[in-house]
């Protein structure tokens, strides 16, 4: 493996360690023993769930290519996953509000374990079924667990500021440390021990089974709106009305769709971008480096969320702008750096080095994004339909990714990176609008509170 990979990984490791060790009282929140036990339990389970997801990430594209499928075939498999997440995942995820968030989390474990099992077959139809199951699981992963956490946190009457601490810790470990270890473990299983590209999926199933056992033994059930009179269609209508009637929720959904759509497109693009001539790159190690960058981002987010200023609505504008620039680097290098037509066993070109640095910057933005968007969702999304609304957000996201992947052979890879960069810049603009609307709402609320103190019979101010 080339020295460049180790230099980047080592440099990022030193920065992350330095940030964590240099935390002062302003960067820490004093909490209770009961909350710490609750937080640690959730972080452990979330980390196991993410291990089940991260172990698969670097090897999905690689496994399909090993089975002999071309980029178009692989693109259709990815489309099946995102399409399933949009159609079936939205329904299954929304049932969490009515049938219980704990049940939904257990359903995630079972569905994803079955998806992992399908990876043993080189049959296209079996792999397609696996992608459908994986799409359903993904919707549950990014809605049911967060919904359970917020509801349980509020039910136990913990301080609202502590919620951001759980978010940042969960992302630091689940999307950071665990992701790094998953990448390295996948590399050992696949390359060092020679078990092949299916081994990480088997390991993922084991972690999911362990997490499922802990959920069964330690979690209590909670619900959104348990009303028996509300069927699924009524829940969908209620969620749609909430989004349409509150600009903050609508903006948050658009921002999330633009960012996550670009992020999932990047997941598909980074392998061919770094190996345009099918170079033998260390997928697991590169993935671990990306996750170390994400860990750095979550560490920065933890510091930001622990302070009153700057507000999350403000600094996320900068994060989206930086992420837009990061994914535009492949476009810039395509013009400034001449392409190489020589295959090198494990070597990387100068353009590849630049792109890896840019991709690391993007992953750093991803690390800041997750706890920050979770914080905003906890503030703006109503509790009774939290899972339903969060899965509504995923509909435009999945449509966006499906359209991009369907046309994966129609456009050069630089065009797709350029599209992602534009969408991320749009997210920055919408984030600025969200800050303005939220600030206006806070000002009106403060004015009404002040008026209420002077005149108890006064009516609330409306937008």
UniProtKB/TrEMBL annotation:
<dbReference type="GO" id="GO:0006811">
    <property type="term" value="P:monoatomic ion transport"/>
</dbReference>
<keyword id="KW-1133">Transmembrane helix</keyword>
<feature type="transmembrane region" description="Helical">
    <location>
        <begin position="6"/>
        <end position="22"/>
    </location>
</feature>
<dbReference type="GO" id="GO:0005886">
    <property type="term" value="C:plasma membrane"/>
</dbReference>
<keyword id="KW-1003">Cell membrane</keyword>
<feature type="compositionally biased region" description="Basic and acidic residues">
    <location>
        <begin position="444"/>
        <end position="457"/>
    </location>
</feature>
<dbReference type="Pfam" id="PF05631">
    <property type="entry name" value="MFS_5"/>
</dbReference>
<feature type="transmembrane region" description="Helical">
    <location>
        <begin position="318"/>
        <end position="336"/>
    </location>
</feature>
<dbReference type="InterPro" id="IPR036259">
    <property type="entry name" value="MFS_trans_sf"/>
</dbReference>
<dbReference type="InterPro" id="IPR008509">
    <property type="entry name" value="MOT2/MFSD5"/>
</dbReference>
<feature type="transmembrane region" description="Helical">
    <location>
        <begin position="391"/>
        <end position="407"/>
    </location>
</feature>
<feature type="transmembrane region" description="Helical">
    <location>
        <begin position="170"/>
        <end position="189"/>
    </location>
</feature>
<feature type="transmembrane region" description="Helical">
    <location>
        <begin position="348"/>
        <end position="370"/>
    </location>
</feature>
<feature type="transmembrane region" description="Helical">
    <location>
        <begin position="74"/>
        <end position="96"/>
    </location>
</feature>
<keyword id="KW-0812">Transmembrane</keyword>
<keyword id="KW-0406">Ion transport</keyword>
<feature type="region of interest" description="Disordered">
    <location>
        <begin position="444"/>
        <end position="463"/>
    </location>
</feature>
<feature type="transmembrane region" description="Helical">
    <location>
        <begin position="128"/>
        <end position="150"/>
    </location>
</feature>
<keyword id="KW-0813">Transport</keyword>
<dbReference type="GO" id="GO:0015098">
    <property type="term" value="F:molybdate ion transmembrane transporter activity"/>
</dbReference>
<feature type="transmembrane region" description="Helical">
    <location>
        <begin position="201"/>
        <end position="219"/>
    </location>
</feature>
<comment type="function">
    <text>Mediates high-affinity intracellular uptake of the rare oligo-element molybdenum.</text>
</comment>
<protein>
    <recommendedName>
        <fullName>Molybdate-anion transporter</fullName>
    </recommendedName>
</protein>
<feature type="transmembrane region" description="Helical">
    <location>
        <begin position="285"/>
        <end position="306"/>
    </location>
</feature>
<feature type="transmembrane region" description="Helical">
    <location>
        <begin position="43"/>
        <end position="62"/>
    </location>
</feature>
<keyword id="KW-0472">Membrane</keyword>
